[in-house]
Design a protein that fits this description.
By secondary structure, this protein is an all-alpha fold. The protein has 3 helices and no strands. Helix content is about 65%, strand content about 0%.
């Protein structure tokens, strides 16, 4: 369901926005809606990635080694 909202923008901003929208073959309304959708989608993707990263940090990473090598073993000369 779509719902109208009212926003206050500077007249110069509206005028420039309409010019850009016209060049893109769309309306200012659609351009604003598309940009807001992108912002929301990116925020959700960031939150999902952050949750995955934090979960991975909590569980740790298993390298498959039976034990961690000592510093001397890693840096043998």
């Amino acid at each position: 369901m779509k719902q109208n909202i009212t926003i206050s923008l500077d007249q110069a901003l509206i005028r420039e926005g309409k010019v850009i929208a016209a060049k893109r073959g769309t309306s200012l309304n659609r351009m604003l809606r598309t940009e807001l959708e992108k912002i929301i989608r990116n925020a959700k993707q960031y939150d999902t990635a952050k949750k995955k990263a934090l979960a991975a940090m909590r569980t740790g990473f298993h390298s498959g080694l039976a034990r961690c090598p000592s510093r001397d073993e890693i840096h043998e000369r």
